[in-house]
Amino acid sequence: MSRINESPYAVLVRDLIHRPGEMREHSIQVVVPETFGTAVIGVEKGSTLSVKGRFESLHDGILVDAVVSGKAQAECVRCLIDVTLPVRVEFQELFAYSEDEAFDYTVIDEYIDLEPVVRDSVVLSLPFQPVCQKDCLGLCPECGVRLLDNPGHEHEAPIDARWAALAGLQDFTQNSHDQNSHDANDSPETQEEKS
């Protein structure tokens, strides 16, 4: 089991412990050790998150008020292209001195490990259904072309299944009409020759 001070999210708070009213600001840049998110969107392993926070000593523990920023990689759920979305989320969490059930996080060996708070905050801030832009039209349901790239994209309207049986009659009636027109245009001599 690794020690807390080896975590990239660990912040040493020795100068704040049991000194109510003391406060300091601290910033860290973290290379994400594992992907935060889902199959559709996430902050990928190896990318960088910036954590800027204010650490304030209270009677019960250390209050951390921080902003996390970075970038998430996603796939638009409408048109399936890859997009990069900004991540910016704020959190406020108390790291208690004692391991009491009333507190979710504690100060351990004079350190605060921000990883679980950062991970939870980032994951909860990610959109459930990311899109490349708000008015993304998605893909054509017939041929799969991206509609934003082809705004005038259209297909011939399909024949209603109820009328499909009559489609063959159109050719039949057209041929009959053409034949009748041809016969009507024949001269009287030609009509006599035919009979």
Summarize the structure in short.
By secondary structure, this protein is an alpha+beta fold. 19% of the residues lie in helices and 32% in strands.
Task: Tell me what you see in this structure.
By secondary structure, the protein is α+β, with helices and mostly antiparallel strands. It contains three helices and nine strands. It has helices spanning 115-125, 167-185, 188-194, and strands at residues 10-12, 23-31, 36-37, 41-43, 48-57, 61-75, 82-96, 105-106, 111-113. The strands form two sheets. Strands 2, 3, 4, 5, 6, 7 and 8 form a seven-stranded mixed sheet that branches. The protein has a two-stranded antiparallel ribbon with strand order 1-9. The radius of gyration is 35 Å and the shape is rod-shaped. The N and C termini lie far apart (106 Å).
Low-confidence stretches: none
Shape: rod-shaped
Q: Compute the separation of the termini in Å.
A: 106 Å
Could you state the oligomeric state of the chains shown? single chain
Specify the helix fraction band: 10-25%
- Give the SSE order as H and E letters: EEEEEEEEEHHH
Instruction: Count up the helices.
Output: 3
Q: Describe the sheet with the most strands.
A: 7 strands, mixed
Task: Indicate the topology.
Blueprint: E1 10-12, E2 23-31, E3 36-37, E4 41-43, E5 48-57, E6 61-75, E7 82-96, E8 105-106, E9 111-113, H1 115-125, H2 167-185, H3 188-194
Parallel strand pairs: 7-8
Antiparallel strand pairs: 1-9, 2-5, 3-4, 4-6, 5-6, 6-7
